[in-house]
Each structure stands twice: as C-alpha cells, then as structure tokens.
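User: Hi! I'm working on a homework problem where we have to compare a predicted structure to a textbook description. Could you give me the structure for the chain below?
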Amino acid sequence: MSSEFDEPRDNEKFTSNPEADYQLGMDIISGRAESKDLPEAVILFREAALEGHPGAQYELGVSYCAGRGIKQNSESAVQWFIRSAENGYPKALHNLGVRHSIGKGVDEDAVRAASLFLQAASQGHALSQFKLAVMYKIGWGVQQKDEEADKWFGLAGDTGKNEALCPLSEIVKQENDRARWLKAAMSRGYSENAFEVFAASQSI
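Assistant: Happy to help. Predicted structure tokens:
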C-alpha cells in the first residue's frame, strides 16, 4: 500500500497465523496481555492485515485514525477501512457509512452510506440498523419508507447490544455527525424540533 510497510519485520513479534496475530494485538490494546506496547499491537495488526484479516485491517485503520501506537494518518486509516469493508467486516462498513454520510475523508454520498449501512445492518450491526432506519424514515439516500424504518428500528432493538438501547439522538451525538443528520432531516421537511422529538422517541 505504501512505504510504511517496507520496514524490516521482527519475526519475534508476529506468528504465521493472522488470527493469532490479530487476537494478540487485541489483547494488547485491551490491556489483557502482559505487554502494553501499542506499537507492537500495530505490528501484529499490520501483519494480519497484509494477510487479508478483515478485523486486523479495521484495527489498523483505527490505529492510524487515532494515532494509537503509530503516527496519525487519516489517509492510511481510510484506506484500511476500505480494505476491511471490501472483506465485509461490519465495523468497517459502518465506519465508511458514517464517513460517506458526512463527507469525512471520503466523498459525501448518502446513497453510498445507505448501501454500506445495509451491508453492516444485514450482519446484525445495531448502529447500522439504527442509521439505516433513520435514513428510511426521512428518505435520505433511500426512498422514504416507514415500513422499512420500523423494521430496522425493531431489528436494532432485537440485536440486544448496549448501543442499540440508546435514543437516536444520543447515538448521532456520539458519532459527532448530529448536525449533518439534522440538516438532512430538515431538508426533507422536518423542523428541528420535530426531528428532536422523533429522535428522543426512538429509545429501543
């Protein structure tokens, strides 16, 4: 992908098993491993990512995005999120969906965002189910369909994840894209107050 992967490999820091490398990297960043060396986790994620491990590709993207154990690089982050999404990883699909919905590091494209949310939502990703429901509710990136909105709101609740138990307004706020979503709703006839009332009512 770029010259950052031309660095010499330390054979003691990774295995020939991408899943094992990924799991060890996750143990390091979560604090479960004895090692607290975040750069070592990046090495492990990188090795697994280069072998096509979608989870490692996503975590490498997160590392670049947040400067976690490596110099922050938004362009590299997006590239790895894309590679992970191409492998069908739900978190990466959701991440890119959010980015396309607000034009962060990629083109602003509501239709593309809805498509990505649908792919992640179909795999049970609660936040994508919630986002997709909102898009159907306000007709943004998809044709407005209350039945589809209700279906995805219901599935988000059925997923049983903690993040799906938050009101819509809180989920949007957490991802720092509330203003963009509110603007989209208002452009489709919702007043700000009406959207806030609707958002607050979607506690599932």
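For your comparison, note the following. Residues 1-9, 160-176 have pLDDT under 50 and may be disordered. DSSP finds eleven helices and no strands in the chain. Good luck with the assignment!
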